[in-house]
Amino acid sequence: MRRAAYFSTAILSLAACGAPDDPSAVASGDLSRAASLAAVCSGCHTALGGEALVSLAALSADEIRASFRSYRDDDALQTVMHRVARGYDDADIDLIAEYLAASGAD
To answer: Most buried pick, 43, 76, 88, 100, via CB within 10 A?
Structure first.
């Protein structure tokens, strides 16, 4: 039951994000793949959440990319974001950053 509630919240959050205003901003990769990868972010970085997490809406693709890679490459810290980021390569991070920046999504 908890899994269904989490899944529903993630889907609603992604729907709230919407598609990028400029789909050509995700020129380096497939738009549907970028949307799928970025869906993971909506589980925590959502407009429905509190102020505990950073909003991604106002960040540029370069800021998202740099932060994501910093989490991925830092072996010293062990937060959820560090663990999540380790599952992505540079190409995936580029797609996520471009997609989120283009959509202005939380």
So the answer is: 100
Torsion over CA: 78, 83, 85, 90 (sign):
positive
| Residue ranges in the chain assigned as alpha helix (H) | 2-17, 31-39, 61-73, 80-85, 90-103
Report residues of the chain scoring pLDDT below 50: 1-21, 23, 25, 28
pTM over 0.70: no
For residue 98, give every residue at least 6 positions away whose Cβ sits within 8 Å of its Cβ, in sequence order, or none.
25, 26, 27, 28, 29, 34, 61
- C-alpha distances (whole Å) from 103 to each of 20, 44, 73, 83 are 4, 17, 26, 25
| 3-class SS of residue 40 | coil
Q: Residue 52 has what pLDDT?
A: 60
**For the chain, what is the mean pLDDT?**
73
Q: How far apart are the first and last CA of the chain?
A: 25
